[in-house]
Amino acid sequence: MQNELPNADLESPAPVLPTPAPAPVKLTEVSSLTLEGLTRFLTEELGERSFRAGQLYRWMHQRGATSFDEMTDLSKALREKLKQRAEIVPLVKDAEQRSVDGTIKYRWKTRDGRYIESVYMPSEDRKTLCVSTQVGCAMACTFCMTGTLGLKRNLTPGEIVAQVHAVNREVRKNEGLETLRPLSNLVFMGMGEPLHNFENLKTSLAILQSQDGPNFSHRHITVSTVGLVPMIERFGQETDVKLAISLNASTDEQRSKTMPVNRKWNIAALLDACRKFPLRQGRRITFEYVLLRDFNDTDEDAARLIQLLEGIPAKVNLIPYNENPGLGFQTTMDQRAERFRELLCEGHVAAFIRQNRGRDIAGACGQLANRGGENASESSQSPELP
Ligand code: SAH
């Protein structure tokens, strides 16, 4: 053996060692960057001129491009460079279910073989998408299907935004529309607790609200939280979109039973944060109240709710409970729900019964969950939607 080191004669040429494989370069997830972040990446890391960032950003976030090859006004060389150094993290459509009321539930497969869901809800005057912010959820509300999963991981800003791009594409195709962004409204009420993934939520909002991106108005985006009190304050300071609070109870005893977060920040602490919340003129905080039969839907509950909300510019959305088998709660009867609403209105609290969308496809509030999606072999067979 010519190059065996131990016997190597000093005169002989240096041994030829196998060239080590180049260390894999970690690709930068460019679909998760704000325009500022992307500009920094392109100029500092790739040595490109800054206007290229705007081009790339508009491809991703105005047109929803999912590959560099589509970006025909970027030079071939730049597209190749991007492929070497950057990636647009995809969400692959795995399944869809259509409700008789026009609601469509989409299930996406993430790159690491997880599943998340988004729900499209068209109505006469708006096209709303309900987006997810986490795979699973750590909040463990006892009536909620996602809550039974536990938290698997946070979604990246790119994955949050990708739900919007993908559904825009679907709506264009299904409804034969030319407009780049047929969706008009976004609600962060899908899987996960948005304020528990605050940095990525914030970045996704920056992208979704940007003029070079989908350009959603702050008036058309609502973020719903279980009530992570310290984050509500930051949310008010650092974003300008609308706030919804999942109250769901009229006493601490009730709320702590169904929403473990209440043991840390009780109703008084939560409403105190709401009172301090910097509201834009004319805006109100939405309080969601899931009606659970004989649990939180009595006349006394309505009276207590009126008291609790005193002094807060509030609107109450009464949500008919979507029963999840095995979780042990029942839906309030329509008549009781209507009476509850009337009582609130008589107490000068604006209250509405939320229309129940996609109930026949388990696409309604609190029914998004997926137990089949942990590993790749199952996923390739497209398990039934729950
Ligand atoms: N984590 C956030 C957003 C996701 S849940 C939050 O808690 O606000 C969105 C809304 O659906 C919440 O108001 C929640 O209370 C409600 N919800 C959960 N499960 C439900 C169910 N089975 N039926 C009706 N509403 C439900």
UniProtKB/TrEMBL annotation:
The keyword Transferase applies. S-adenosyl-L-methionine binds at residues 192-193, 224, 246-248, 322. Residues 123-360 form the Radical SAM core domain. One of its GO terms (molecular function) is metal ion binding. Signal peptide: none annotated. The active site is at residues 117, 365. Its EC number is 2.1.1.192. GO terms for cellular component: cytoplasm. PANTHER family: 23S RRNA METHYLTRANSFERASE, RADICAL SAM CORE DOMAIN-CONTAINING PROTEIN. This is Probable dual-specificity RNA methyltransferase RlmN. It comes from Melittangium boletus DSM 14713.
